[in-house]
UniProtKB/TrEMBL annotation, chain A:
Region ranges (Disordered): 1-25
Membrane topology, record value: Multi-pass membrane protein
Species annotation: Halomonas alkaliantarctica
Keyword Transmembrane helix: yes
Family matches, as Gene3D superfamilies: MetI-like
Transmembrane spans: 34-55, 106-127, 139-160, 192-215, 235-257, 295-317
Family assignment from sequence similarity: Belongs to the binding-protein-dependent transport system permease family.
Keywords: Cell membrane, Membrane, Transmembrane, Transmembrane helix, Transport
Chain intervals with Basic and acidic residues compositional bias: 1-10
Protein name (Swiss-Prot/TrEMBL): Sugar ABC transporter permease
UniProtKB/TrEMBL annotation, chain B:
Keyword check for DNA-binding: no
Listed InterPro entries: Bact_solute-bd_prot1 (IPR050490), SBP (IPR006059)
Organism listed in the record: Halomonas alkaliantarctica
Keywords: Signal, Transport
UniProt signal peptide: 1-24
Sequence similarity: Belongs to the bacterial solute-binding protein 1 family.
Source lineage: Bacteria, Pseudomonadati, Pseudomonadota, Gammaproteobacteria, Oceanospirillales
Localization: Periplasm
Predominant subcellular localization, coarse grouping: periplasm
Protein name per UniProt: ABC transporter substrate-binding protein
Gene3D superfamilies (alphabetical): Periplasmic binding protein-like II (3.40.190.10)
Record flagged with keyword Repeat: no
Pfam families, sorted: SBP_bac_1
Length: 327, 423
């Protein structure tokens, strides 16, 4: 049964999209031409606003440029990355704080994206159900996503404050804790505080994508399942989940890219503290605070490479999975 | 209808009359917003506007000095004329000198006459006076006079004494129903302010200045380790865990709402603690920071802010005139009386009106003059990294991931690495 469903649903539709017209026909050539014509403005814009800064960052990472005098930069090769000098290693790759920030970022990304997917699906399932006032609830759920991160992070910073924050007050009044916890100051809790705020903020995004997928699901197989008396959980794992996987894949890649370059939520909540420092916070610190544009650019370049690698790996694995599932 | 026509005609006429004074220029000044700073700055600027007929736009900047420096560096490195006059920290003149105007060129050779020599020297880079002293700062200890009296204590003279008194009063007050009572609050967030706090602990224990004036790294010693260990013992005992994320204003918030026995802060907090809406009005005493043990001495960290003119300003003469006005004797006196900002002009410390408003300016005069400078001069461009290494390590000790001995050894290694590469 499952194969027949798969042919009817979204990925099957996607496949018909990629069905190629026969090579060499006139129509095809015209289409390709038109496609390039329409793409050109975007490609030019991308080269200007994304390509140029990227190339410049690559270049600066091989210099000793300083923010106080950008013009007077010398080429120094790979010294910003790694160099052996006077009996010890220097450079970003030899900096324990950099590796700490890499670990923090990976930890943050994996944990927060996983939680967001789980909760996002749950919220989407709730919103998909028929109930009174559904429209209002759907709009309300979007609020965390609509608030700019910098604002919501500051809001949470106040709510999490150890002396006057409402979170501690609530937890203490119901007796879960007996002394206020310094959520954003204590190294044990600060990463979890950051993850919690990020999850709170981005559940709506995942929920929205999943909800869109849920709305497209064919009703008949659910009716069939109901007639057969199959347990709802089994229906979810055997029918719903495989069908919404493509939408989930999109949600995960978007969230993963966002999470790997996370900056604002961490910076507002815990500033430069090394226990939560992400790769972006590290790069900013080198670039701006220490004025070391060369070194900071090296950190930014590494960040770019890591994100690119993660994306490629994810797409590769994702494609494998879809192909396996599709056949 | 007729009425609106008339009013709009008046509006247009008045606009025209303003634009006809084409000389009236618009300047931009950025000043701090800690405590009453922004209001004071706006009042001072308004007085100058009235005097000269020019208009000034006041932009407020981040409270954290670390972030404010970043903002300035971005603006200045873009050669932007967005901000004409900048309020800069006492440790920045060396970093920003290239981008700042030599004020002696515009204001004359005796522009800074009468100001504290040490600050003028500090602001003079390669014989260029890049900033005028505006107010000076030194860390002081605030205490609850009423509570100390209630429990029969004098103001503490050593950190150990402070620890014991704070613990005793905190616990007694908590037992008496004030559950939120804390013993001691200070600036424990991983930022520049923690560098000053930690330097005060280390220096008061006789542990040196982290990096000495000759560039020698002196932090790895038992006095420094002892000082850091004592500070770490406060967390969760007499200081709340949240102090690890406090800057000046968070600490003041707790103290001023009656939630702490002791607070380390700058003099500006005095006027606010004595203001009408303060919960501790009339109950606060100010003294010098404690010494580290029997053989230590009190060490107050030197702070303070200056006004500088950007080289990229489109109206450098006018901007320099604004700076001269704001840092002048009259304006500094007003700021001292109204909001307890320390003048940089020696004569004001003998002024009766000033001493009446802020009595401790007289009693703590020596503290202000002999404050301990952060090692920004010997480390030059690398100061940002040095300070960061110092406050990060201190933060590690405070949050319990390292002990003092380990921390000062690690810090010495780290600083030695920085020294070999950067200074």
């Amino acid at each position: 049964m499952s194969t027949s469903i798969k042919h009817d649903d979204a990925p099957a539709g996607a496949r018909s999209f990629t069905t190629k017209p026969r090579r060499g026909t006139k129509v095809r050539r015209q289409r390709v031409k038109a496609a390039w014509l329409f793409l050109a403005p975007m490609l030019i814009a991308l080269t200007l606003v994304a390509g140029w800064p990227l190339v410049r960052t690559f270049f600066l990472s091989f210099t000793d440029a300083s923010l106080s005098d950008l013009g007077a930069a010398n080429l120094i090769g790979f010294e910003n990355y790694l160099v052996y000098d006077d009996g010890s290693w220097y450079g970003v790759l030899a900096d324990s704080v950099w590796w700490q920030s890499v670990w923090n970022t990976v930890y943050f990304s994996v944990v927060s994206v996983s939680l967001e997917v789980v909760f996002g699906v749950i919220v989407a399932l709730i919103l998909n159900a028929e109930f009174k006032g559904r429209v209002i609830v759907r709009a309300a759920v979007l609020i965390p996503w609509a608030i700019p991160t910098i604002v919501s992070a500051q809001m949470w910073a106040w709510m999490l404050n150890d002396q006057f924050g409402i979170i501690n007050h609530l937890l203490m009044s119901v007796g879960i804790i007996d002394a206020p916890i310094a959520w954003t100051a204590n190294a044990v809790y600060s990463m979890w505080a950051v993850i919690m705020v990020d999850v709170w903020k981005t559940i709506p995004f995942v929920a929205l994508l999943v909800l869109a997928a849920l709305q497209m699901l064919p009703k008949d197989c659910y009716e069939a399942a109901e007639v057969d008396g199959i347990h709802p959980l089994r229906v979810f794992f055997k029918v719903t989940l495989p069908l919404i996987t493509p939408a989930l894949m999109v949600a995960v890649i978007f969230r993963l890219l966002d999470a790997l370059r996370v900056f604002d939520v961490i910076y507002v909540l815990t500033s430069n503290s090394t226990s939560t420092m992400s790769m972006s916070v590290y790069a900013r610190q080198q670039l701006v605070e220490f004025q070391d544009v060369g070194y900071g650019s090296a950190a930014s370049t590494l960040l770019f490479l890591i994100i690119a690698l993660a994306t490629v790996a994810y797409l590769y694995v994702g494609r494998k999975q879809i192909q396996l599932g599709g056949d | 209808m007729k009425k609106t026509l008339i009013t709009s005609a008046i509006a247009i006429a008045s606009t025209l009359s303003v634009t006809s004074q084409a000389q009236a220029e618009e300047l931009t000044i950025s000043c701090g917003a800690v405590g009453a700073e922004l209001t004071l700055c706006q009042e001072g600027v308004a007085a100058w506007e009235e005097k000269t007929g020019h208009s000034v736009d006041v932009v407020s900047t981040p409270n954290s000095s670390t972030e404010r420096l970043s903002l300035y560096q971005q603006i200045l490195s873009a050669n932007s004329s967005d901000i004409d006059v900048m309020q800069i920290d006492v440790v920045w003149p060396g970093l920003l000198a290239n981008h700042l105007l030599d004020l002696r060129e515009v204001l004359g050779d005796d522009a800074a006459a009468g100001h504290f020599d040490t600050i003028v020297t500090n602001n003079t880079i390669n014989e260029r006076l890049v900033a005028m002293p505006w107010f000076t700062d030194a860390g002081v200890l605030y205490y609850r006079e009423d509570l100390l009296e209630k429990y029969g204590h004098e103001a503490p003279t050593t950190w150990q004494e402070l620890t014991e008194i704070a613990r005793e009063i905190q616990n007694a007050e908590r037992a008496a129903g004030k559950e939120g009572m804390q013993g001691y609050v200070f600036q424990g967030r991983a930022y520049e302010g923690l560098t000053v706090n930690a330097l005060e602990w280390v220096a008061s224990f006789g542990g040196g200045n982290v990096v000495e004036t000759d560039g020698e790294i002196s932090i790895n010693n038992e006095h420094a380790a002892e000082a850091l260990d004592l500070a770490a013992s406060w967390i969760g005992d007499i200081s709340p865990n949240g102090v690890l994320n406090y800057t000046e204003e968070e600490a003041r918030g707790v103290f001023q709402s009656g939630g702490a026995v002791f607070m380390r802060n700058w003099p500006y907090a005095w006027a606010l603690a004595q203001s009408e809406d303060s919960d501790v009005r009339g109950k606060v005493g100010v003294t010098q920071l404690p010494a580290g043990g029997e053989n230590g001495q009190s060490a107050a960290g030197l702070g303070g802010w200056n006004l500088a003119v950007s080289r990229y300003s489109e109206h450098p003469e006018l901007a320099a005139d604004l700076v001269a006005f704001l840092t002048g004797e009259e304006e500094q006196k007003r700021r001292a009386i109204q909001a307890s900002y320390n003048p940089t002009i020696d004569a004001l410390y003998q002024d009766d009106e000033v001493l009446e408003a802020v009595p401790f300016f007289g009693t703590l005069y020596d503290t202000f003059v002999n404050a301990v400078a952060r090692p920004s001069a010997p480390t030059g461009d690398a100061y940002g990294r040095v300070s960061n290494a110092f406050f990060s390590t201190t933060h590690d000790v405070l949050s319990g991931t390292k002990d003092g001995t380990q921390a000062v050894a690690d810090l010495e290694d780290e600083l030695a690495r920085l020294k070999r590469r950067n200074w």
